[in-house]
Amino acid sequence: MNSRDRMLAVMAHEPVDRVPTDLWATAETMAKLQAHFGEGVNVNDALGVDGMEHVGPDYIGPPLPVMPEGESVNFWGIRCRRAEYNGGAYQEQSHYPLAFAQSVNDLDRYAWPSADWFDYSKMREAAVEKRSRKVLMCGYMAPFYYHNLLRGLEQSLVDPYECPDLMHALLKRLGDFFFEHHRRMFEACRGLIDLSQVTDDLGSQTGPMISLDLYRTFYREHHRRFINLCHDYGIRVFHHDDGSCREFLPDLVGMGIDILNPIQWSCPGMDMAELKAAFGGRVCFHGGIENQRILPFGTPADVRAEVRHCIDALASDRTGYIVAPCHNIQSNTTVENILALYDEARTYGTFR
With contact defined as beta carbons under 8 Å apart, do 241 and 260 qualify? Predict the structure, then answer.
């Protein structure tokens, strides 16, 4: 099987020759791997990663402001500043463009993005080329996460109690843009896209970020609308949800998510064997490899044991699982541990 065949088969819960793999890593980690393998070598190929390709439109909307060095802004008006950490850097948000809003009328003062701001005409040609060996992903729809980004995390968690009408109106405008933007992408690439993200970060390290009742009142129907849009175009839904999100899974699986990531099994309610038993017949799992303790601080032998642990739990039926870190591999992870991850996935995950 080639990478594309293997990934499609495992998502459909069909037999595979081995457990497929994916790689998520920071830029600093990728630079270390590139240095290890040498200039001009494809890191994913060198590691034997099956992986995914991505396609999207060109931005042709209003010119974005010129920002000072180390700062950035996107078409949402979300501004970020570069923040240095031990061995790496992230763009940390510094401005929340709808933090000022106190009523529904205030939403009219914001320059809502439009699908007209994008050129979809070149997507099909790119999609044809990229999907020849890899599965192809397109799009990202996340109402809870973008509510956080537009209002600020604290205010977005207060909104359901303080200003529910404003929140419903904000999510409606947000959802309408996501829907039309993705509809145009899917139409431009009709029949070529394999996956799209209908995603959110509903879980924290210790439990849900919001209650199930609040999820059902404000966010669930937006997820349902996006999931249905994907399925109308024959596209599988990739759902990313960090942390302890077990409480939301019956609703999400019932609405039709197809792939669940990242499976942080160390968080409450995220036991891998239980998740496989409860949802493994309907959902393909992606991730699982613990990257807060084991990948950065364990030995190569610890990493290999973790890979076996995840395969035993999430590929117990020899399908329905893609080996990957449960978040981006951070810069404090050794090359030796990364090599151990993908070597063990290939050797232990090969079915005979």
Answer: yes
Beta bridge partners of 73: 79
Q: H or E segment at 94?
A: strand 88-95
Q: Which residues make Cβ contacts (< 8 Å) with residue 248, sequence separation at least 6?
A: 202, 203, 208, 212, 215, 241
Q: Residue 64 in 3-state DSSP?
A: coil
Q: Alpha-carbon distance 125 to 77, whole Å?
A: 30
Contacts (Cβ under 8 Å, ≥6 apart) of 308: 344, 348
Token couple for 350: 């090969």
**88-95 and 79-85 beta bridge pairing:** antiparallel
* Cross-strand bridge partners of residue 322: 286
DSSP secondary structure letter of residue 350 = B
Q: What is the dihedral of CA 221, 226, 229, 233, to 10 degrees?
A: -150
Does the pLDDT of residue 307 top 90, yes or no? yes
CA distances from 151 to 75, 174, 348 (A): 15, 12, 46
The whole-angstrom separation of Cα 347 and Cα 309 is 14
Contact (CB, 8 A) for 146 and 16: no
Q: Which amino acid is at 352?
A: R
Q: What span, in angstroms and rounded, lies between the C-alpha atoms of 145 and 159? A: 14
pLDDT tens readout for residues 130-139: 999 999 999 9
Top-level class of domain 3-62+101-348: alpha beta
DSSP string, 141-202: E-HHHHHHHHH-HHHHHHHHHH-HHHHHHHHHHHHHHHHHHHHHHHHHTTTT--EEEE----
In tens, the pLDDT along 187-222 reads 999 999 999 999 999 999 999 999 999 999 999 999
